[in-house]
Design goal:
The chain has a domain of 44 residues. The longest helix has 16 residues. The mean pLDDT is 80. The protein is an all-alpha fold and 91 residues long.
């Protein structure tokens, strides 16, 4: 009875097959480059950065109009500042 966990087929098929030696060197070089050039994660903001951002938000929210028909555009989000700039330029 065959073993259902026999993975010799998968191990054999998992090995890459190259058409030429040039292709083999190219693919291996690309793998090395992808491993070397990993993106660095962004730095963690410090407490001073967070405080400065909170001050910026406080001043920015205080400059918003009190009554507007597009109040959701002034809510915190990625399009808040572009919308505000667009309205100021238009006026």
């Amino acid at each position: 009875m065959p073993n259902q966990y026999d993975d010799t087929y998968h191990l054999r098929q998992a090995q890459p097959v190259y058409d030429t030696e040039k292709d083999k060197r190219y693919i291996q070089t690309q793998r090395e480059v992808d491993g070397i050039l990993e993106l660095k994660p962004p730095r963690v903001p410090t407490q001073q950065d967070e405080n400065a951002y909170m001050e910026f938000l406080k001043e920015d929210f205080m400059s918003d109009p009190w009554a507007t028909y597009r109040f959701r555009k002034y809510m915190a989000g990625p399009k808040r500042i572009p919308w505000k700039n667009h309205r100021q330029i238009k006026r």
